[in-house]
Amino acid sequence: MKKRLFPVAVAVLALGLTGCAGAGSQSGQSSEAAGVKVAASFYPMAYLAEEIGGDAVTVTDLTPPGGDAHELEISPKQVAELGNQDLVLYLGSGFQPAVEEAVAMQEVPTLDAMDAVKEDQLREGDAHIWLNPMIMAEIGDLTAERLSETDPNHAETFAHNAKEFRTKMEALDSKYREELAGCAGATLVTSHEAFGYLADAYSLEQIGITGINPEAEPSPKRLREVEKIAKEHDATTIFFESTAAQTTADRLAEAVGVKTAQLNPIEGTPEQDFVTVMETNLSALSGGLNCK
Q1: Is 162 found in the same domain as 273?
Q2: Residues 6+ apart with CB under 8 A from 130
Q3: Pair (231, 164) in one structural domain
Q4: Number of domains in the chain
Q5: pTM of the model
Q6: Are residues 148 and 233 in the same domain?
Q7: Cα–Cα distance between 73 and 67 in angstroms, integer?
Q8: Of the chain's two ends, which shows fewer C-beta atoms within 10 Å, N or C?
Q9: Where is the signal peptide (predicted)?
Q10: Would you tell me the crossing angle of helices 133-150 and 155-179 to the nearest 10 degrees?
Q11: Widest CA span of the chain, in angstroms?
């Protein structure tokens, strides 16, 4: 059974990460018996750690269900307990500043998922790399290597799991390429610029209503700009993220005369697993984009 633990309440948080690991064991076994201890900064990293580590790891997701990954705060106790982890898997580039600051305070093995992104793939100010399946596959390979350094006895298992994970991501990538084959150059109008890496992978042009900050209310000038671009590119749908209010998307959709649809940026823990949510996003894209 894959083990993931969440700091879900103040009382639990006060115990620190080590306390969480002990609470998550079936019979109070020691942390050593629980396998390699991995702290993951938010859901996509936790999902990936579980896929690669399997039963050989215990994963602590630092962002609890329903929590805002962008706004995550880490207590001094948690910062100290990060030093007891065998690996911290996180996403740099300012996506979760509190995690980066905490990691810098501890001498603990780390993996910044941004290391998997090739220079020509990087997008300035955007860290949503997990929405590109092939980048996820690269992160999986790096995770297997780092786990193998920590636990050489399970190196073959980690390598095997990474290979299977890559196959899963390749299949997902193939689905996207097949269903979006006629959409190259189509305009993806979103309420939050979280889908740039996905758009780049499948030759789409992303236009964000608010920019990369989902909490920012777009100005009337910005709405007019996006309205003009959407009309010029014959956009048929305004996509809004499932975690954001639909009001802005509805306003623009009404102004342009198009429909709305949801895209999940998968920043928080979803009700379904990663691949299923990605497939749901694909259905929304293929049904909403202006494709040939």
Answers
A1: no
A2: 44, 48, 91, 113, 136, 139, 266
A3: no
A4: 2
A5: 0.85
A6: no
A7: 10
A8: N
A9: 1-23
A10: 180
A11: 62
Beta bridge partners of 239: 190, 261
How many CB atoms within 10 Å of residue 211?
A: 12
Residue type, 14: A
- Residue 4: per-residue pLDDT: 62
| CATH number for the domain that contains residue 58 | 3.40.50.1980
Considering the domain architecture, whether residues 120 and 211 belong to the same structural domain is answered as no
**Do both 43 and 164 map to the same domain?**
yes
The DSSP element (H or E) to which 261 belongs, if any, is: strand 259-263
The rounded distance, in Å, linking the Cα atoms of 239 and 260 is 6
| Inter-residue contact 215 to 197 (CB < 8 Å) | no
Indicate the SS3 state at residue 99: helix
Top-confidence range, 1-5, 72-76, 240-244, 251-255: 72-76
Q: Do 140 and 23 sit in the same domain of this protein?
A: yes
Q: How far out from the chain centre does Cα 103 lie? A: 19
One domain, residues 171 and 243: no
Label residues 93-122 b or e (16+ Cβ within 10 Å = b): bebbebbbebbeeeeeebbbbbebbeeeee
